[in-house]
Design goal:
The protein is mainly alpha-helical. The protein has one domain (about 45-215). The chain contains ten helices and three strands. It has helices spanning about 1-15, 25-30, 50-65, 95-100, 105-125, 125-130, 135-150, 160-170, 185-200, 210-215, and strands at about 75, 80-85, 90. A hairpin with a 4-residue loop joins strand 2 (about 80-85) and strand 3 (about 90). Helix 3 packs parallel to helix 5, helix 7 (about 135-150) packs parallel to helix 9 (about 185-200) and helix 9 packs across helix 10 (about 210-215). The protein binds zinc ion (ZN).
């Protein structure tokens, strides 16, 4: 992300003043709800195992360090979830491959989301709170994922990839409002991720309304 911001700054010098210069924050403010990336996303053809390792390592070095939780194990499983007992991120191969069609950003989002559950189990009041419910935990994990992905320095994302990431969060939302496993509607999931990305990329300066609602769970 740092490299990405440096790149933006470099472009800023070359652009005529009349052109709108996008920073990540303004970009997120205007483009968050495009359902699909503006350009066809580039399918991730690299090694998914290595990408997962990279995201987990980056997450451990950014939010994990702050939260006092370290690098954790991951495994290919029959479903995608965080196992809080064995402290393992489980990833379902077909789902991850499908996400890879939208590029590395979509895969990275899901891995960061599962790592966020690890952070929650170590730190979040929402886990033990009497008002605990799945949706609040899931939206907090989306917001944390944004902070993780904006703060890691071993992986960077361009604007199209940021947009893909938000579209991925939107697409994994659901309308099963009365189901105990309701994760939140797509719009909320995209907003939660976007708030985390804004918070992380502004080094904690931008705490918007959704940050409080989703990241802090207030
Ligand atoms: Zn989750």
């Amino acid at each position: 992300m740092r490299r990405f911001i440096q790149l933006l700054n470099k472009h800023k010098l070359r652009l005529p003043y009349s052109k709108i210069v996008f920073t990540l924050s303004t970009f997120l403010a205007v483009n968050a709800f495009t359902a699909l990336p503006s350009k066809a996303a580039i399918e991730f053809t690299g090694d998914i195992d290595t990408l997962v390792d990279t995201v987990i390592e980056g997450a451990a070095n950014s939010m994990g360090k702050v939260a006092g939780t370290g690098k954790i194990k991951w495994a290919w499983c029959e479903d995608t979830y965080y196992n809080s007992i064995s402290k393992t991120i489980c990833l379902e191969p077909k789902f991850m491959k499908e996400l890879g069609k939208a590029g590395k950003a979509a895969i990275s989002f899901v891995v960061a989301h599962e790592y966020a559950h690890h952070v929650q189990y170590a730190t979040s009041k929402l886990i033990s709170n009497a008002q605990r419910n799945t949706m609040r935990l899931e939206l907090q994990a989306d917001c944390y994922a944004g902070i993780i992905l904006a703060s890691t320095d071993n992986i960077s994302f361009n604007l199209d990839e940021v947009q893909t990431m938000i579209a991925a969060a939107y697409s994994v939302g659901d309308q099963a409002y009365d189901d105990f496993n309701h994760h939140g509607p797509g719009e909320n999931r995209a907003l939660a991720l976007r708030s985390g990305l804004r918070y992380g990329s502004s080094k904690g300066e931008i705490k918007d309304t959704y940050y409080k609602m989703f990241c802090l769970g207030k």
